[in-house]
Amino acid sequence: PGKKVLIVYAHQEPKSFNGALLKIAVEELTKQGCSVTVSDLYAMQFEPRATRNDIVGQLHNPEAFNYGVETWEAYKRGGLSKDLVEEQKKVQEADLLIFQFPLFWFNMPAILKGWMDRVLVQGFAYDLSKVYDGGLLQDKLSLFSFTTGGSQEMFSKEGIGGDIRYVLWPMQHGIMHFCGVKVLEPHICYAPENVSEEKRKEMLAAWTQRLKTLWKEEPIDCSPEWYFK
C-alpha cells in the first residue's frame, strides 16, 4: 500500500486490448492503495525524436551537436525541456514502472522507444561508472506488459520467431537493468486478435490475478543466462 506506479502506455485506441490491460492495471493497483500515474504517449502527442529542442538555452558545444553530451550537461544545470523534466519527475517518484504496448517488429513502438531515448538521460538514469546493478534508478521495479501479433508457438525457441526472451534482451536488460531498475517477469498476451472472445477474457482475468500479488514477486535474475540459456 502507498506504492507509486507509473504506467507508460503506447497505444492509439482506448478501446483496444492494450487499453483494456491499462484500465485493469489502473483499477486494480488503485484498489490496493497505490497511487497510479499514466503517461498516455499518443494522447500526449509525445515527441519521440531526440533533437536539440530537448535542451533549453545555450548548447555546451554549438559547433557540433552531440545529443548524449548536450542532454547530460543540460540535466546537470536544469536545462532540459519541460516535457522531459515532467517525465523524469514521474519516474523519480515511482516504485514501479509498467510499460504497456503492442509489440511492433520485435520491438516497442517508436513513440515508446522515443520516451526511453529522451527521458533516460545520462546523469538522471545512469552515469558512466554507474550502470547495471549500480545504475542510478535502483530500488525501482519495472514490468513490460505487451501484446504480440504472433502466437506463443511462433515465439518459442523452436518457433519461427525464436524465443520471446531474445526480444526482451534490449528492452529489459539493455535499458532497464542498465539503469539499475529491477525487472519483473514480463506479462505477455499472445495474439489477442486471433483468439476467441473467451480466451481474451481469460487473458484479462490472468492480468487482474497477477496484479493482486505483484508486490510479492521476486525480480528475474538479470543475467544473459535468463535470456539465452
TrEMBL record:
SUPFAM superfamilies with a match to the protein in the record: Flavoproteins
Keywords: Cytoplasm, FAD, Flavoprotein, Metal-binding, Oxidoreductase, Phosphoprotein, Zinc
GO molecular function: dihydronicotinamide riboside quinone reductase activity; metal ion binding; NAD(P)H dehydrogenase (quinone) activity
Location(s), subcellular: Cytoplasm
Gene3D superfamilies, per the entry: 3.40.50.360
Reactions mediated catalytically: 1-(beta-D-ribofuranosyl)-1,4-dihydronicotinamide + a quinone + H(+) = beta-nicotinamide D-riboside + a quinol
CC annotations in GO: cytosol
Lipid metabolism recorded as keyword: no
Keyword Metal-binding carried by entry: yes
Cofactor(s) for this UniProt protein: FAD; Zn(2+)
Record domain Flavodoxin-like fold: where: 3-211
Role according to the record: The enzyme apparently serves as a quinone reductase in connection with conjugation reactions of hydroquinones involved in detoxification pathways as well as in biosynthetic processes such as the vitamin K-dependent gamma-carboxylation of glutamate residues in prothrombin synthesis.
Known partners and oligomeric status: Homodimer.
Entry similarity comment: Belongs to the NAD(P)H dehydrogenase (quinone) family.
Protein name: Ribosyldihydronicotinamide dehydrogenase [quinone]
Upper taxonomic lineage: Eukaryota, Metazoa, Chordata, Craniata, Vertebrata
